[in-house]
Specification:
Length: about 230
Amino acid sequence: MVSIASALKNNSYPGRGILLGSVGGLAVTAYFLTGRSENSRNRVFRTEEDTLLILPFDESKVSDPKLIFYTPIRVCNDAIVVTNGDHTETVCVSLLAGHSFQYAMSARCYEPDAPNYTPRIAGLVLSTGRYTLGIVKKVADADDCRRKYWSFDPKEGMAHMIHTYQSDGDPLPPFEGEPRELSISGNAEMLAEEIWSALDADNRVSLYVRLTDLANGRFTSAMRNKHLGD
């Protein structure tokens, strides 16, 4: 296992990222945004009860709302769903219909944002604490979608992270390999500060960290928004 700082410090542009794990007997769910363009950077997080929203900071500067504004975290059927796009809704509809996370993701492909073809990433935390991460990305030199999933049993002080891009580039290279296995500790505020500090200061946009007691659904959270002075 490596630290959050070690996993992110040499990556100036990981894109959007999901971190799931367990600390202090609580389920950890974290989601972050980084951005290079004005449109991508013009975003802030806001919460409504147990849901996380992405909203424009300055509506007059929105040039293309597609793929930018969505609901990254929702609770559905006692499970926590986190994604980097509107497939949050796809997963929730699937769960409510009695289908699986994998069934939902099989209906989606990578984002239509040529030439990057940003992968769709997603995470699911069950009431048992077991969590799954998944990615849907473009096959090199073909239009096909490649899907991969990883499921983990919760282990104290351990998390796994996946993000959309392997590194900065033009076009942006998609995430490769296994989810990064991380050592974590502390409360929501401490974890938020650790992740926020590890993200590139020029490109980081927003971050949300939640620690949930899966027995009763109660949680504590911490948030960072660059536009709000964080």
